[in-house]
């Protein structure tokens, strides 16, 4: 039964206050004990430092003169300035205020002023594990001790070698909760939004199941029939009437006939902001009208162009929609639930379950709080 609904005067509930699945999922974070993309490798040059944020925790990501990427908590142990307001010197990052200098482990290695007769102090901030793979810099925002227990998500088609597919990642930041983006990418009822690009049309959900920490689903749908994109897909070679998808926590993927694949990694900045890394991968694309594949050496250049004229405008449609959804959510978070696609609830249950798992680990092993005076001294004091 519908009821008239007026704008909520209060902000949406916190996870602890949430009363139903949607309120819970829209306030849940993502479990930090996974590898997440921090930046595209090419976007962090030697000598650069950039701020990345995971669920309100600011991290300084920098690349030293040796070419290696490093990350530490983005605050000076001295007066808590963001280290991203400073600069990289050699393989260290320097705070602009008094020049304290941090190595990649977060240790203060230089203080360029008097020590007032004291021994060189053991000040430090927590470091954040980092590695590079598939053209991305990955970081581990969770417990650093667990970082070696999991790998960066395996993307076989991007492993170096003769069979490597071409991929030019696209990353976007939208003012929307990460769960809205996960809902969006696997819920094909929103074909209506994409009337111009038609990435999928006439979708029929064939089935879905939750297996462990994954929701797997399949659609019968016409893939890539848009006016431009449709010309580059060789329908004689590729079955474009069927698509498999997965929300393999905390990321999402799709697969069309083992020929077209994509991965999406969402990085939650806060409850209403998410950075998303889309990796669209094609085994081959054809030269329109000629029936031959675009030569592999040209694929990178072609995909850079395709990103500009198809992928980014298409994603912009999703971005505009989820940002509007976020605004609608904040105004009407207590409106009656109205959802038809059963997979949406499945994604939401998984996100909630994993966030509860994370919260449970936090209450089992409460952080040992140091007295405020020592807060910057110990490794791992922040997490
Ligand atoms: S505030 Fe960073 S060196 Fe003093
Ligand atoms: Fe979409």
Quick overview of this protein structure:
This protein is 20% helix and 28% strand. By secondary structure, the protein is an alpha+beta fold.
Distinctive features:
383 residues, alpha+beta, Rieske Iron-sulfur Protein, Naphthalene 1,2-dioxygenase Alpha Subunit, Chain A, domain 1, 4-stranded antiparallel beta sheet, 5 helices, 19 strands, binds FE2/S2 (inorganic) cluster, binds fe (ii) ion
If you average the pLDDT, what whole number results? 91
Major beta-sheet overview: 8 strands, antiparallel
Sequence stretches where pLDDT stays below 50 over 5 or more residues: 369-383
Structural class by sheet pairing and helices: alpha+beta
What's the shape? Answer: globular
Instruction: Return the string of H and E elements.
Output: HEEEEEEEEEEEEEHEEHEEEEHH
Give your account of this protein's structure:
The protein has 383 residues and is α+β, with helices and mostly antiparallel strands. The protein folds into two domains: 40-149, 3-layer Sandwich (Rieske Iron-sulfur Protein), CATH 2.102.10.10; 160-351, Naphthalene 1,2-dioxygenase Alpha Subunit, Chain A, domain 1 (Alpha-Beta Complex), CATH 3.90.380.10. Helix content is 20%, strand content 28%. It is built from five helices and 19 strands. Strands 12, 13, 14, 15, 16, 17, 18 and 19 form an eight-stranded antiparallel beta sheet that branches. A four-stranded antiparallel beta sheet has the order 2-3-4-9, with no helix packed on it. It has a four-stranded antiparallel beta sheet with strand order 5-6-7-8, with no helix packed on it. Strand 18 (260-270) and strand 19 form a beta hairpin. Helix 2 (178-186) runs antiparallel to helix 5. The longest helix has 36 residues, at 296-331. Residues 369-383 have low confidence and may be disordered. The structure holds FE2/S2 (inorganic) cluster and fe (ii) ion.
